[in-house]
């Protein structure tokens, strides 16, 4: 993990940046929270600065005024309508590079953003390096053991997520009795699970006879300091509504927001949730 003194958190939506802020505050390292307008809820932070995603010059100024030597990106930020952005001068200068990178995919765009802040002199720190308690070891999260069929679906779902991830499409996939029911794209995990819930009953499980697995994993070769996969209680609830039997993630390669709450939700819903060892960025996993 990189050494730094004062951290600036650039917060998007969801719970992850709140966990990161709390972890950084506990070590007295959090110097500045920049809540991205339209994504972050500024009421969840102490004295945040609210900025638009294209106000890069102002964001850099905010970080320097707070004497930050490092920055962390955390939270949900959807791809913007670039034509509707109102960038400042530094944002305007970066826009052509952002457009070129965005045409290659989300990971390329995120790498460009990381590169921008590194060129400005900041160390980019992964959310998992700050709130490392969100990473889990191999094993169950909860008490329900996956069946042999569920483990087989998990292995295939991890493989499919790796294939689509290699094309910079998404980080998740759902497989049921060997049949691919969905892959994650721009809609995100919750909406993907809602699509599965809307499929014909004969293709998926239900509350009385659960089957199928959601897998979430990093894209092969992705920039892990930003956009590492996340699951939480809402993921469990979405998987339960879709009739799934389980959720699988790679140990050390995805974050669990509130492990105890996730375990309780999984047990209450009758889902197996577990983490598996994966061979680096390869598809092979001991599911």
Commentary on this structure:
The chain has 287 residues and is α/β, with parallel strands linked by helices. 35% of the residues lie in helices and 18% in strands. It is built from nine helices and 13 strands. The chain has a six-stranded mixed sheet. A five-stranded parallel sheet has the order 3-2-1-4-5, with helices on both faces. Strand 1 (7-11), helix 1 (16-26) and strand 2 form a beta-alpha-beta unit. Helix 7 (189-197) runs parallel beside helix 8 (233-241) and helix 8 (233-241) packs parallel to helix 9. The protein is globular, with a radius of gyration of 19 Å. The model has no long low-confidence stretch (mean pLDDT 92).
- Ends distance: 28 Å
Report strand order across the widest sheet: 6-13-11-9-7-8
The percent range for strand residues is 15-25%
H/E element order: EHEEHEHHEHEHEEHEEHEEHE
Q: Quick check: average pLDDT?
A: 92
| Rg of Cα set | 19 Å
Specify the structural class.
Answer: alpha/beta
Number of helices: 9
Major pleated sheet: 6 strands, mixed
Shape: globular
Give the low-pLDDT segments: none
* Tally of DSSP β-strands: 13
**Helix amount:** 25-40%
Short characterization:
The chain contains nine helices and 13 strands. By secondary structure, the protein is an alpha/beta fold.
List the helices and strands and how they pair.
Elements (H helix, E strand, L loop, with lengths): L6 E5 L4 H11 L3 E7 L12 E3 L4 H10 L4 E5 L14 H14 L3 H14 L3 E2 L2 H4 L8 E2 L7 H19 L5 E5 L2 E5 L5 H9 L15 E4 L13 E2 L1 H9 L4 E5 L4 E2 L2 H11 L2 E5 L11
Parallel strand pairs: 1-2, 1-4, 2-3, 4-5, 9-11, 10-12, 11-13
Antiparallel strand pairs: 6-13, 7-8, 7-9
Helix pairs in contact: 3-4, 7-8, 8-9
């Amino acid at each position: 993990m990189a050494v730094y003194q004062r951290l600036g958190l650039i917060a998007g939506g969801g719970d992850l940046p709140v966990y990161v802020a709390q972890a950084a505050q506990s070590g007295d390292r959090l110097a500045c929270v920049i809540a991205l307008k339209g994504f972050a809820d500024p009421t969840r932070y102490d004295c945040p600065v609210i900025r638009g995603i294209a106000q890069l010059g102002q964001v850099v100024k905010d970080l320097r005024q707070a004497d930050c030597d490092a920055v962390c990106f955390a939270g949900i930020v959807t791809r913007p309508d670039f034509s509707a952005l109102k960038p400042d001068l530094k944002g305007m200068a970066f826009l052509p590079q952002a457009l070129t990178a965005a045409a290659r995919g989300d990971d390329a765009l995120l790498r460009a953003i990381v590169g921008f802040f590194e060129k400005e002199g900041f160390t980019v720190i992964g959310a998992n390096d700050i709130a490392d308690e969100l990473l889990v070891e191999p094993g169950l999260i909860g008490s329900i053991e996956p069946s042999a069929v569920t483990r087989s679906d998990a292995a295939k779902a991890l493989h499919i997520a790796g294939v689509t991830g290699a094309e910079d499409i998404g980080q998740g996939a759902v497989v049921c009795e060997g049949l691919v029911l969905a892959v994650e794209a721009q809609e995100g995990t919750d909406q993907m699970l809602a699509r599965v819930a809307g499929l014909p009953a004969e293709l998926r499980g239900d509350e009385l006879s659960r089957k199928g697995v959601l897998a979430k994993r990093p894209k092969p070769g992705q920039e892990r300091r930003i956009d590492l996969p996340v699951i939480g209680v809402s993921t469990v609830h979405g998987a339960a509504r879709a009739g799934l039997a389980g959720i699988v993630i790679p140990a050390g390669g995805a974050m669990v927001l509130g492990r105890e709450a996730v375990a309780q939700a999984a047990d209450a819903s009758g889902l197996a949730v577990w983490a598996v060892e994966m061979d680096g960025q390869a598809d092979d996993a001991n599911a």
